[in-house]
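#help-structures
NK: newbie question, is this the right format to request a structure? protein is Carbohydrate ABC transporter permease
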Amino acid sequence: MVTTVQDSSAQVVRRPVTAAPPPTRRRPGPASRRNDTWVAWLLVTPAILGFGVFFAYPMLRGVYLSFTEFHILTPPVFTGLANIQELVGDGRFWHSLGVTAYFVVLSVVLGVGVSLVTAVVLHRLGVNTTVRGLMILPFLISGVVTALVWTWMLDPQLGIVNQLITWVTDEPVMFFGSGGWAVPTLAALNVWKSMGYNAVLIFAGLQTIPASIYEAGRIDGASEWQMFRSLTLPLLRPILVMVVILNVISATQVFDIVQVSTKGGPADASLVLQMYIYDKAFGQFDFGYAATMSLALFLLLVAVTFTQLRMARAGESDTN
């Protein structure tokens, strides 16, 4: 850079001006990095303690108890594979596992299907956040409250739903008192409770699909159903797999709505696996065998989850 200066003799003198050197940045030294490390460990310590106390230790303790005979008042006695042998020959366990599988299939198929249709309709209509917030309200209600309210509404004598059914068919429906209706009714309650949350997740996935893809489909003459089948479903594969896995895990661990509404009846028709585990642990105080069934349920969920991820290629969509 050059500046022009005029002296008293009217002569122009050009003087070069040098730019100031840029400020030097000090690189953090070993002491600074050590301080950052201590701060990082300090911040993650509460999470590590919570994970160890509330997850790792109970899980390891449960695995140990699954190989013991433990009845609370006496110390656990190691029995090896005796609980597993009893589990294999326990007909009530296999019955509860079948009821759980039936409940899971109904809840996942109906829940994901209804949520998908609802999310697509909302996406086409372009609703605001208020409507989506109202849809998620049933998910925020506890399972106990949900079961109590629907038990009153489906009561064969005083329930408003059965009042309408009686007005049409002249006889009520035993939703919770019939072996054929108990599990489908519980699945419907579970679908009603989780449908809004699933629809919001799928709606978020729909918003990630570029509008130009649908415009190209319309130019090619594709109908709405063809675009839904050939464009929307393949592009939603990662979201749908996540929703299915979440619903499978949630439905497999169902307990509150069954405990409040049917208590596993009538005649064990709605005895899901969690109810049987609860009965063994807190009804018969056989915590060792209950821990064995819990471990079996955990391994089953792990196997189902990894199978779904493997078969559906959850990490990629058809755009990859």
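mod (FA): yep, format's fine, and the tokens are attached above. The mean pLDDT is 85.
NK: thank you!
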